[in-house]
């Protein structure tokens, strides 16, 4: 629909359960791209049909593991050239997916279709507060133009406060 506010799209999606790859949950989304406003992300309203499982325990385990490392975590090429993500880096891949989602919403138009292709590089940055900080270089595949674009994104994360993108 096109109205005086912008372009509205209705999507039906199937979300894969993060904890159980064989389980999916259906949802619908209404996305409104504002007319003439290239600097603001679209408004998104999502309705989940079913129940998403809690990741609270897995989040705590990952948080405690990262906090216990003597050296900051550094990793490259997630997934590798064969599409494999080491199990211990799956939470990093998911956080990169969240961070890239922010970048995608901020930079999408009706004529783009971005997809996270790879975490080229990630480095944990030690902080004095309780947040975990990860500096990512993600490769976004723009499906329409077939370009692969690198983006630098800093993500702060805490299991109780969730993820926040501090710069991109």
Structure description:
- With 168 residues, the chain is α+β, with helices and mostly antiparallel strands.
- It folds into two domains: 1-53, Nuclear Transport Factor 2, Chain: A (Roll), CATH 3.10.450; 55-167, Nuclear Transport Factor 2, Chain: A (Roll).
- It has helices at residues 56-68, 90-107, and strands at 6-16, 24-34, 43-49, 74-78, 114-125, 132-142, 147-158, 162-167.
- The relative contact order is 0.13.
- The mean pLDDT is 86.
Q: Which outline best applies? A: globular
- Please compute the radius of gyration using only Cα atoms: 17 Å
Total count of domains: 2
Annotation, overall tally of beta strands: 8
Family: Belongs to the protease inhibitor I47 (latexin) family.
GO molecular function, one term: metalloendopeptidase inhibitor activity
Pfam families: LXN
Domain Cystatin LXN-type: 1-57, 74-168
Task: Offer a few descriptive terms.
168 residues, alpha+beta, Nuclear Transport Factor 2, Chain: A, 2 domains, 5-stranded antiparallel sheet, 3-stranded antiparallel sheet, 2 helices, 18% helix, Latexin
